[in-house]
């Protein structure tokens, strides 16, 4: 019969550090280490480095890091070394009692993930602290039994992981195929181009003071973090005072406007451009974010968004930024961006064609994403079964 112990009795936890951004560099250098952040859960591109210093918490390739906030809560990062930021927590097991393999199996299982999500959802920041997880129950067989079960799990997961990897590659390939189709479509329209500012109103965001922001009952604000790769990230934790809408009405946006991140415009090989959703009607633009509002007599908004999210615009942006440094786009370069100059009726026809093609690709990706979810659920089920099989 196995014992059940508290997580805090067999592990210690260390939060990360947050060095000033002026210390960041984007190429390896002597005296610098990789700085691990939430985005490293998804990609190994756009790596950041910081100086090696005692004030920065370090981890090795054998350490296990847990995401603490937002969508990263409960995600596990291992196999990387360097410093890590405050959004990650390092687990330090007592290896006389629990192996790192057993700990990682537990942390990725429903035994840990389910209560963690419940605890995190009660936090205003949708996150957790060391104290929140100290009393979590951990089934603990003898070390030899832990190692035997971990080896069994590794063997069982090899085939599943291979299928997960193949499915992820397939989804990525469909994205690439859709992008290739879109690029080919727009390349046929490149014979006649016009500067973006001649077809649309372009607004550069305002540098609101940090003390202006409040957490509720105010005017929504659009910051760099709201603009993802063809994805608007809605948050409800940062607002501006209500009277700011009248004071700064020239920085207000409408539903359907297109927003660009002017700082770190390109991440993970994609362009940070999105459409303002209904909940952000009348929101105010923060600094380093620009909005594009198409003149309906000259430019169809859906057609323009399809073009602005294409690889042709990505190439334009990359040609106007220093990719060795932080990739920033100037408002002037955005205004001068060449866009197709074709009659509005043709734009409407082309937009419909693009939408139909996009729906076809989306349906295929939905099927593959469902397969991916089922494979992940299978792993989770096997983990739960093995970790509870002989628990007290």
Write the SSE topology.
Elements: E1 3-6, H1 7-10, E2 11-15, E3 32-36, E4 49-51, E5 58-59, E6 64-67, E7 76-78, E8 82-84, E9 88-93, H2 100-107, H3 110-121, H4 130-134, E10 137-140, H5 143-187, E11 193-195, E12 200-204, E13 219-222, E14 227-228, E15 231-232, E16 239-240, H6 244-247, E17 258-261, E18 266-267, E19 270-271, E20 273-275, E21 284-285, E22 289-294, H7 301-308, H8 311-319, H9 331-335, E23 338-340, H10 344-388
Q: Care to give the gist of this entry?
A:
This protein has 392 residues and is an alpha+beta fold.
General description of the model:
The structure is a single chain. The protein is an alpha+beta fold. 37% of the residues lie in helices and 20% in strands. Strands 2-9-6-7 form a 4-stranded antiparallel sheet. Strand 6 (64-67) and strand 7 form a beta hairpin. Helix 5 (143-187) runs antiparallel to helix 10 (344-388).
Structural features:
392 residues; alpha+beta; Adenine-n6-DNA-methyltransferase TaqI, Chain A, domain 2; 2 domains; four-stranded mixed β-sheet; 10 helices; 20% strand; globular
Please identify the structural class as seen in this structure. Answer: alpha+beta
Helix content: 25-40%
Give the number of domains: 2
Low-pLDDT windows of residues: none
Mean pLDDT: 87
Strand order of the largest sheet: 2-9-6-7
Largest sheet: 4 strands, antiparallel
| Secondary structure tally, helices | 10
Would you tell me which CATH topology of the largest domain applies? Adenine-n6-DNA-methyltransferase TaqI, Chain A, domain 2
Distance between the ends:
6 Å
Which CATH top level class of the largest domain fits?
Alpha Beta
